[in-house]
Design goal:
It is a single chain. The protein has 2 domains: 130 residues, D-Maltodextrin-Binding Protein, domain 2, CATH 3.40.190; 101 residues, D-Maltodextrin-Binding Protein, domain 2, CATH 3.40.190. The chain has 262 residues and is an alpha/beta fold. The strands form 2 sheets. Strands 1, 2, 3, 4, 7, 8 and 9 form a 7-stranded mixed sheet that branches. It is 39% helix and 23% strand.
Length: 262
Amino acid sequence: MVVNSLIFSVLLLFSNALVAKDLVYLTSGEWPPYLSNNLPENGYASHIVKEAFSAVGIDVTFGFFPWERSFQYAKRGINPNGEIWHGSLVWVHTRDREKNFYYSDSVVTDQEVLFFLNDSAFSWDKPKALEGKIIGGTSHTVYPLFERAENEGLVRIDRAGNYDILFKRLLMNRIDAVPQVKHVGNYYLHNNLTAKERAKITFSKSVIETRSYHLILSKRLKKNKQLIELFNEGLNKIKLNGKYKELETSFYSGDYDNIKKL
């Protein structure tokens, strides 16, 4: 009986070890349809991150905060309450951020364009054509092209509020244009504005840049160097086994545009 009990205990421990998963805590802000606390699977980019980690035996918990707080929690690896936050999603690469974070392979890409009012006779193909314009932006977003143009005295970047507020300010003619990736801009237009308001806004044919967005993990947590390698391994797995393509198809079908029922 003792031997049998011992064998059972060992098998139970072994079984638990097989099913137990590491847990990663990631911060995020609202950026639908890629990231949102109110969308299926927390948005398209969140779903990719979750599936990539799952492919290497790791579970994910997301925490949604205002963007600046989300970034600072991830940078420190911990919040004021002592809760661990391994990193954040999803961010473009900058040299300054790389000082504090490990960057994953690209999670999603999208084309950044300028949204502006139909009646503004707005056209551009290079920053010089934007001379005198006020470009609306947020405090947490980098705008390399327009930041250089601002330094040259060509444009002014007016940073205030979130993406939704930027489009409201555009409609009130307080700014001349909003730089935003297509899918996020179109999401806000169709979910936060009336049909009459939407009809007043269009976007440029000229692409500012194709932006690549990444998972970032804080360099303050020793485990994160291994975690970023595991994530990249999982991301590669879901690309090879077709799961990434499946999620991409769902994204282009609008499956992540639907507000989840609470």
